[in-house]
Amino acid sequence: MSTTDASSVDRSPASDADVCIIGAGPAGALVADRLADDHEVVILEAGPRFEYADRQERMERALRPAHDRPDVWDVGGPRDASTSTDGWFYPLNHLRVKGVGGSTLAWQGMVMRLHEDDFASGSARGVGPNWPIEYSDLQPYYAAAEREIGVAGADTPYAPPREEPHPMGPFEPSHSDALFAEACEAADVAMHAVPNARNAEPYDGRGPCVGYGTCQPVCPAGAKYDATVHVERAEDAGATVIDRAPVERLDHDAKRVTAAVYATPDGERHRQAAESFVLAAGGVEIPRLLLLSESEQFPDGLANSSGLVGSYFMDHLFAGTGGVLDEPTRQHHVGFTTSESHQFYDDADADIGPIKLEFLNYAGPSPVESALAGDDWGDALLDDLRADYGTSVGVGALVEQLPREDSTVGLDPERTDDRGNPVPRIDWAVGDRALRTIERANEIQESILDALGAEITWQVGPDNTGPAAHQMGTTRMGTDPTSSVVDADCRTHDVANCWIASSSVFPTSGAMNPTLTIAALALRVSDAVDAWL
């Protein structure tokens, strides 16, 4: 694949910066785009720029069994090392991307709003904290985020209040969605469209989805939104983007961040000074950076007078049930989810959390992966494909994990990265409520598949569940500086010119994919930084 000579790029600090943004994923990109017209903006990104022309080759990589998911976007090695405890192993690199565009290069692209009760879990469900903001505070920013990203969707009877339709109408239900519809009616389960961050029609200068089917981990067509859209727009407005510039610490005094210290591929260290700083590097790297920035003024890490930087680490847990039918299901004809159900979401209470059901369009093996993984050829291969492919169905779900103070991201005391800095150590603790919720999700899934007449052949339940790669909660939002890291505007309690735009500020996780909420909060942070400047 084509690459740019890292040593030939000028990575010296930008002069007279008003805003330094750390991370060029969706949050950082949106903040930069919003502020670049009126302010001098610089983005520091740890990873490289990826050539758009290479995406088809990366798609081919994704299809070949010799490559794992991290290989598609060059993730791995000492740069991306982490450690995880023996209790609940956390596979950090499975869906992580370091580079301009961040996680949106590899994400599936499901974008739904949190529900009203998610912002008031303690009051409405009797468990967990309330957010210091309400749904109504974020509602206009949700609408703006949907317009910026380009969302194809439709209103549902279970969704929170909307102020306008989605920018695009929804994708049509898939063939397997149609099979599920009759079974769901029999099982008294409502189906509805999924809001997708991919173009159902031409939008914002990008073409519609053409059905490559490799949405996660790569869209070669550009129909699925990724944050390079807003990075490039910010650059057009004058923003400076410095790639391959991992930030190693934040210099500061007792009240303000003064500079971001970053490394370059040639081994040099630079200081990027600015009037304000926005941390947008995700739920693991943000607390790691704050902890690496310890000082005499902040001996336990920058912005950590509460002692809670890195605490309350959360992710969504997956529940799934699948099997086979005696008729074609056209699995893998669609590489993303087109139907879901939020019917059981607001039934949540202290014992069972919210559940988001997903009707999978990619259950079972894909024909390409099956063909490439086997040793057979010709008629034998064709017989194998006919036997294994085309009759699979599955129902997935995401469930909420409650915040726990003993679920943490910290610094590993023994292992270091390629620059000699401690790697993140993840101590992931999962509570009993989440496991009970998975059992409940499995029961609903079984009832649907039984009504469909499917033979159940697999299940992901409490004993073999895993994370959805949605890192949340490690710099939580709150009004009390002793029990939170940032205030209701996502500004750190301890230093006046530092904001955090990330799912790391979520006090609770809900069970909705977090990117739309990240985007809405990023737009809200943009307004706060603009007013402060």
From TrEMBL:
Keywords: FAD, Flavoprotein, Oxidoreductase. GO terms for molecular function: flavin adenine dinucleotide binding; oxidoreductase activity, acting on CH-OH group of donors. PANTHER family: PYRANOSE 2-OXIDASE (PTHR42784). It comes from Halococcoides cellulosivorans. Residues 403-522 form the Glucose-methanol-choline oxidoreductase C-terminal domain. It comes from the Archaea. This is GMC family oxidoreductase. Pfam families: GMC_oxred_C, GMC_oxred_N. The keyword Cytoplasm does not apply. Belongs to the GMC oxidoreductase family. The keyword Translocase does not apply. Residues 97-316 form the Glucose-methanol-choline oxidoreductase N-terminal domain. Its cofactor is FAD.
